[in-house]
Amino acid sequence: RRRSRFTLSRRLCGICIAQSLKIPHDHKPSDFDKIIRQLLDTRYARAVILFASDEDIRGVLNASKRADQIGHFLWIGSDSWGAKNSPIHQLEDAAVGAVTILPKRATISGFDAYFTSRTLENNRRNVWFAEYWEENFNCKLMSSSKKDDSSRKCTGQERISIDSKYEQEGKVQFVIDAVYAVAHALHNMQRDLCPENSGICPDMDLAGGKKLLKYIRSISFNGSAGTSVTFNRNGDAPGRYDLFQYQWNNVTGSSYRVIGQWTETLQLNDMQWPRGEQDIPSSVCSLPCRTGERKKVVKGMPCCWHCEPCDGYQYRYDEFTCKLCSYNMRPNANRTACQPIPIIKLEWHSPWAVIPVLLAILGIIATISVMVTFVRYNDTPIVRASGRELSYVLLTGIFLCYIITFLMIAKPDVGVCSFRRIFLGLGMCISYAALLTKTNRIYRIFEQGKTSVTAPRLISPTSQLAITSSLISVQLLGVFIWFVVDPPNTVIDYDEQKTFNPYLARGVLKCDITDLQIICSLGYSILLMVTCTVYAIKTRGVPENFNEAKPIGFTMYTTCIVWLAFIPIFFGTAQSAEKLYIQTTTLTISMNLSASVALGMLYMPKVYVIIFHPELNVQKRKRSFKAVATAATMSSRLSHKVSDRPNGEAKTELCENVDPNSKSSLFIRSLKV
To answer: Where are the transmembrane segments (predicted)?
Structure first.
């Protein structure tokens, strides 16, 4: 079986074979071209060991020349190549750098005299000698000969070394030593099995080949060349080889040069590499994988592999395996280990925080200014007409709406998370509970006035505070239940910003509050806001001289628009990598805008009058509930006529029907603007 072998894939004495290719017996030039293409599949494995005949060696060298790969392959020839010129004739350029071996051998002096004296007459016992004679002297002995008819007939008088070239075959030494090895083994066997006989005994006849092989492996003697002949336990004789390299020299041209020997150890002299390479060329099936890549071994070729990167959140566990980092880790820069994912939170200096904080600061300043103004002018007509008690409650709610911005941006801990739960919906709840109480009071007064001059129940300041407190207590009760069922805590969310690129991944430190819990916390306040808006719509027709329903209405309409915009933005960014920033900013800005709308529409006009037009902040004629009831009745009656009359006419008619002399003891101060 003839083979061309390529180093690198089956481990054998530290060497791997990447490919083992058979040269077909009936080969064509295309077969050798295919072999070269296959060898180039593992381009980095350049060393090729050839166990082939002269003809096959020439075919491989020719194919490498046709493929323009002269100097790429590092040929290593077996003893069948040796130092012969026939395999490389006219292919010297393709063979330069080839390393070959020959067993160390010596010329047996007595054999030359013996063999050259052999003739057809004195060597009839060798059945192959006649064929050798024909080949050596290029003649024909008999009609059954394989030589051509054109060949001359042998005379039998030819003489070896006289009529033909002769050179002692290099393997003569080993043939002689092999014969002596068998002879020594038979001698030792006869001595052990037949000690009393001089020849073969029955025990020796029955010994068999295995027993003889055992004796052969145990012999030791000096061979024909004076070297020791022994065998190891595998039956191999000690290797003794001369190493040759086919080198180019500017003076003598190309030739074989002895570069070393092997006698139990390797000894090498200077070698010459193809293409003028100075360093020892490498021959590997696959290049080492880069950092962060694993080896995917080619099936059946354990020393050949493809390099595959450990991608995503994987790191290289060993040279063959990638492993996934734990959920709170990511691979380091060279993917040799895992490292903790950085933890982030919304920072005060972030653009996402600066705008809400700025709005909140301005809102807090404005709210405190309004409260200070109202406290200072607490007994003036405008402040008293605004309903001092509910105004202070409402301003407190607005103040808390601004304060929540700082809690939402502060670094989460148990305390901050607790205050977030409390104040997240409380500020809005206080604000809209107060506004709902106001609008409900106005609505009940004018609805009652349409049918009766009797004042409705629960319209006194104390009653209004009680109603507002009861509405606020529902929110506080919900928060208390939330605390009991799910105590506040902080969590690190690694999923929110777990990007495809692990080096951009971040863990988000935040309170253990889900999006649904935020909406539920605000849900009650939104319900109060919607209910307040409904009452604002119902009281939109109340005469402007008697109420502040219209400013409340405008406040609620604007607030509803703000929160209708908030909901899709809040939930639409739930899957965004910037979820923390967008949702926090959206929530805080929405609350700031809601508070600012209420503050601006309900209180800024009053503060403006109090500060800049004190002459308008005077006591006006008080109106009795009977007058209000009359106004409500006329307003209802005129609602059908207003489209046909100018506004001034309708107002004049209303004023003419109000009894200016009514002395009812019940006055509706909060209806004054």
So the answer is: 352-378, 390-410, 422-443, 516-537, 549-571, 591-613
